[in-house]
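Worked example

This section walks through a single chain of length 285. The input is the sequence exactly as stored; nothing has been trimmed or padded.
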Amino acid sequence: MLTETEKDLCASRPNSVSYDRVADLHFLGNYVRRLPVNMARMMENAHDWEHLPYVHASSFASIDLISKGPWGWRAKIGLPGGGDYQLLDLIIDETRHYWVSTVFSGMGTGTEIHTQATELYGDEIEVDVRFYLPEAPADKSVADFVLNYLTDQYRVLYDEDLGLMSGRQSALDDRMARRDEPPGLASVLVGDVSELDPLGTHLVETQAGRFCVRRWRDEWIVHSAICPHMLGPLNEAKLDEHGNITCPWHGYRFDVATGQNIGAKCNDLAQAPRLIERNGKLYLD
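Given that input, the structure is written out below as tokens.
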């Protein structure tokens, strides 16, 4: 819950990038990196507030959305370790591929992170992440410490984001390719029952999509390996004691027995094929 003071702070925040503001800030330094992703995935990632505590658990413990729109988003962020929080917004200029993340309450108040993304060639971009403080640190050693901390944090953030952005593009490409494929075989072999690891997750490719075969309560089950929200990899999700899985990208949960999304926050899982055992072999039919 927000206090009245926090509500007033949020209401006073602009929903567009003010490029003139940097003249009043102290430029600390920057972090430049080439990324093997296209601009569509990068801009999608900038808008994607939901993934922060799941893909970036070492930097974000929780996130509670305050508002969002084509302009970006504003949220209350819980920090690892408990207790500390930040009010933060990320304002996006789509036409210039530019966005500004600002801490406007809590630890690090006044810190602004300005990012310019530039298309290079093929599916490659460059990000120039520029760190600004409201005023210059007391001395060079403090400035160096803060710059090193922010640089290391953003190196890790982009390391983690690469898996999400690349995985989503791969899933989109795979879905598009399947549309042009002829109908597949009626049955797809999973494997010999005696050789399948009962503790493992067996990813099976079919013409209808990707599916996971797992052992649950002494029987083999099958469910979609693709999260219906943003095509997240459910084959990487662990099956909990209640028979539920959680998408590693955004935390959406599903009952594998029914395919239902728990909480009805997104669509249910795609219908799974039948699982059939014949002559000691397991098939998706």
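What to look for: The chain is about 20% helix and 35% strand.
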